Amino acid sequence: MIELPAPDASPDRTTSTADAPAHARADAPVHAPAGAPASALTWRGRRLHRHGVPHRMLAGGAHYFRVHPGLWRDRIRRLADLGLNTVDTYVAWNFHQPREDAPPCFDGWRDVERFIRMVGEEGLDVVVRPGPYICAEWSNGGLPSWLTARDVALRSSDPAFTAAVGRWFDELIPRIAALQAAEGGPVVAVQVENEFGSYGDDQAYLRWNRGALTSRGITELLFTADGPTDLMQDGGTLPGTLAAVTLGSKPDAARRLLAARRPDEPFVVAEFWNGWFDHWGERHHVRGADSAVRVIEGIIADGGSVSVYMAHGGTNFGLWAGANEEDGRLQPTVTSYDSDAPVAEDGTLTPKFFALREALGARGPVRVPERMPTLPPARVPLAHRADLLAGLGAVPAPTSTGPRPASFERLGLDAGMVLHTAHPRIPEGEHRLVLTDVRDRALVFCDGTFLGEAGPDRREFPVRGAGAVVRLEVLVESLGRVNYGPGLGRHKGLIGPVLVDRRMVQGWDSTPIALQEWTEAETARALDAGPPATRSGFAVATVRADTPADTFLALPGSGRGLVWVNGFLLGRYWEVGPQVTLYCPAPLLRAGENTVTVLELERLGTVLELRDRAELGPVEEYVEEFG
Which of 58, 177, 66 minimizes the C-alpha distance to 128? Predict the structure, then answer.
């Protein structure tokens, strides 16, 4: 393993090293390979420098995977107009390599190199956070489900984990290394893992991660990022590597903590949470501009550096939204990742934008328009074309047969649904049908009759038998993979046995429904499986756009489901809120007619509404605090 030095290792930082090994000394610099170029960012005397000049990093989080590539440059310019000098992005492994049997993809929407170069073209630096774990309210924290399906100690020095990460880094890190400042590119810093101190204390893994970066060519500033508590800093930091913090409040307390632990290092806040994300069934979290400004002023005082998380949140398109868990209960994240950021989900410059811009000292003109053009509001008929099971069954998929239901992982399915079918004999009279462990929701049918929805509050259904074999169908939906905490990597599907009274139902056909991979042709197949006879299933609306522009889709009267636009899966809607509208960016539309396909799981309304602004639901002020 090759280890990177602490920047600007001056004599006063090395006079007390004695003869102890570097890994045993809390303040020991780590030595760079001979001939390595100097990093653009260094520190000296508790101050950050850029090429030797005192520097304050004013960064903002924006994720290429949450913004349509046709809007990357627009959003980067909005961050520059905010007064930032740096863009901070994660790299989502599962976005690039959803299947193990295919190499990682780095083109089109996944062209992270193009995004980084574009940031540089706009005159900004780049901070890259390659994980492999990123949290980010992103499905599985960015880890591929084909990896977490295995019996592997995640985020640890388990060779089964590090070997897989090493192969991924072989593909990714040289691409980042070629875009470093030392190579003429904009990358000035790279993060080691991500908030590891909130998860574990495997220091060997952190050292492996740092070495995996340097041995593949990273020579710019390395840093760790953790919450401002001793517990988190103990678990997530490394000797000789800059320790940054993540916080939403109390910067003075965080500054004191880091000064006591790392007296020579600059104060860097790798994430300042100026807003927060939303879960389905809760309120839309917001944070007042005055509150955000007070904290950011406290951070940048006395030479502090900051990354605003998020500066522009974007959208959890498709089924990429993650989930949290609290007391064993899943909290799925909504489709919008607006996060009450200064640059809103659709690019709108909010009042918080102008307040933070002033606090950051921006003096130049705002070059971008405050809002992007939108289609005029309209109400479009929604035509019900096919029932749920018929439409899903119209799209061919391989079926696995076995004595028990196959999990998403056994089927190689990352997200979407699985249809499980069995044929138990049910004796005469009333009986109990029990689904012992459903992750996350399931629609249950017996001989085509809908029995109800299974979820955290209901796993038992009365069923009347006649002494005959019945057709039992259980359609299981994943609502998002856990992205934070010990539930990371938890499996999805019909995990526990299905019982008729005390007897286990055996002999199942399990069919994966990879909705995230459906094309426009496959949504058309589903629509053609009618005519409908129920209130759920597939519907279609036609939207005309003379000139493509942004729009916001709402489905009044509908319950819960998914929306495609011209074959692109926009995301999930759900009447429990808080999110009401789905943001549809202009590049997804074409001049003329556009097809909007709706998959409704509960009850279908009759209209699709086009609105000219977002409706993210009733608000709740939220400020994340530690201690």
Answer: 177
Please give the C-alpha separations between residue 332 and each of 103, 243, 407, 561, in angstroms, as whole numbers. 29, 31, 19, 14
Neighbours of 263 (CB within 10 A): 9
Task: Mean pLDDT check: name the lowest of 7-21, 332-346, 371-385.
Answer: 7-21
CA 112 to chain centre: 16
CA distance 29 to 375: 56
pLDDT band at residue 37 using 50, 70 and 90 as cut-offs: confident
* pLDDT tens for each residue of 226-258: 999 999 999 999 999 999 999 999 999 999 999
Among 271, 345, 453, 477, which one carries the catalytic annotation?
271
pLDDT, average across residues 517-527? 97
pLDDT tens-place string over residues 70-85: 999 999 999 999 999 9
247: left (phi over 0), alpha (psi -120 to 50) or beta: beta
| Separation of alpha carbons 82 and 104, rounded Å | 33
For residues 9-37, one letter each, b for 16 or more C-beta atoms within 10 angstroms of the residue's C-beta and e for the rest, the string is beeebeeeeeeeeeeeeebbbbebeeebe
271 an active-site residue? Answer: yes
**φ and ψ at 476, to 5 degrees?**
-100, 135
- CA 5 to CA 3: how far, in whole Å? 7
User: 137, 195, 453, 473: which is the annotated catalytic residue?
Assistant: 195
Q: Is 409 a catalytic residue?
A: no
59 forms beta bridges with 86, 307
pLDDT score at 6: 35
The residues with which 486 forms a beta bridge, in sequence order, are none
CB-based contacts of 34, cutoff 8 Å, min separation 6: none
| Model confidence at 15: pLDDT above 50 | no
Positive/negative CA dihedral, 317, 162, 100, 178: positive
